[in-house]
Sequence to fold (75 residues):
Amino acid sequence: MKTFTVYRKGDLSQSHDENQANPATEPQFEGVVFSDGRVAVRWLTKKASVSIWDSLEDLEAIHGHPEYETEWVWH
Fold:
């Protein structure tokens, strides 16, 4: 099992409001990759949620966003 925290260092102000994104210095979401490869994500924004993904690749395909300078910090 591996845990991670995701930051978005880029400017999200044109596409997200204060409910959808935290400042660049704060994490956007955190998660865990289980031993079977499934992933649980907890959004840390004002309108928070939890989601389950079949794989890290699936999560990255939707929420990776290189255009937002997404940074994955592994713990």
The chain has a mean pLDDT of 92. Strands lie at 2-8, 29-33, 39-43, 50-53, 70-74. The longest strand covers residues 2-8. The helical segments are 56-63.
